[in-house]
Write a structure and sequence with these properties.
The structure is a single chain. This protein has about 100 residues and is mostly helical. It has one domain. About 75% of the residues lie in helices and about 0% in strands. The chain contains 3 helices and no strands. It is elongated. The N and C termini lie far apart (about 105 Å).
Length: about 100
């Protein structure tokens, strides 16, 4: 009976070890759960970044609709526009020093 008990115990240990391997490495096991949590965290971070970017764009759109001073500053910076009766003064091009 001692041999039979040893065989049953060995089979039980092998079965438990097999179940452990199945739980850890199966398609929906712990390894897959870890990968899904990592992907979820990455997506949540990306979602926060996109939400902040959307809010920034929304504020810019609202300013473009309602703020004439902002529109003027954009026109001056990006389009190089000037007001009526403004004079643009450009410095003369200086000749580079001759290294010889």
């Amino acid at each position: 009976m001692n041999t039979r008990l040893t065989i049953m115990l060995s089979i039980g240990i092998v079965f438990l070890f097999g179940m452990l391997l199945f739980i850890v490495f199966s398609d929906n096991g712990l390894a897959d759960l870890y990968l899904m949590k990592t992907e979820r965290d990455r997506l949540l971070g990306e979602n926060r970044r996109l939400t902040a970017e959307n809010l920034k764009l929304y504020r810019t759109i609202e300013r473009l609709k309602n703020d004439p001073a902002y529109i003027e500053s954009i026109a001056r910076k990006e389009l190089g526009m000037i007001r009526k009766e403004e004079i643009i003064i450009k410095p003369r091009n200086q000749q580079p020093a001759n290294p010889n």
